[in-house]
Design goal:
By secondary structure, the protein is α/β, with parallel strands linked by helices. Helices cover 50% and strands 13% of the residues. It has a four-stranded mixed sheet with strand order 3-2-1-4, with helices on both faces. Helix 3 packs parallel to helix 8 and helix 7 runs antiparallel to helix 8 (129-147). The chain is globular.
Length: 165
């Protein structure tokens, strides 16, 4: 059991997300998602969570495992072309995970998703949270545009508003 990780999570409170992302920053992220989705048929969701609950910590749940749960909870998989992408941030770990539905994941190597996550984490480590998220949205959007270019009649299938868990 990683006691340092457990302490970080237990000492990171729900309000940490609100202190990290102001209402203006969250609005900026929402606008960036809306703008990005005009350039492709994919769907992007951003979710931020302060820390894991104690039960998850006791079971040593990883950020990746939690991101997969959130992908399901937010129904990111519920798109016509299976091209939803979740960008998940677990603040207590400063960990970014990207979970992509099978339609886009089959076309993009795992290493590409991982590189985006590491670049975002580098920005987070500098305290540039909003910038890091916006850059991640832009990079994910470029991949979606390459594989799912826009076409007339596209509709927005998922909310663009960031999910704060």
């Amino acid at each position: 059991m990683d006691y340092a990780r457990m302490a970080r999570h237990l000492l990171t409170f729900h309000g940490t997300v609100a202190r990290t992302f102001s209402p203006a920053a969250l609005a900026s992220i929402e606008r960036a998602i809306k703008k990005a989705e005009r350039g492709h048929r994919g769907e992007i969701r951003f979710a931020a969570e302060a820390a894991l609950e104690s039960t998850a910590l006791l079971h040593e749940q990883s950020a990746r495992q939690r991101a997969v749960q959130v992908f399901s909870l937010l129904r990111v998989w519920d798109t016509e072309e299976n091209n939803g992408v979740l960008i998940y941030l677990l603040l207590a770990d400063r960990d970014v995970e990207i979970v992509a539905d099978r339609g886009i994941d089959a076309k993009v190597p795992a290493a590409d998703w991982e590189q985006i996550c590491r670049r975002m984490e580098a920005e987070l480590s500098k305290g540039r949270f909003e910038h890091g998220v916006l850059a991640g949205i832009e990079e994910v959007s470029r991949l979606l545009a390459r594989h799912f270019p826009p076409r007339p009649g596209d509709r927005n299938e998922l909310p663009d508003k960031p999910a704060i868990l």
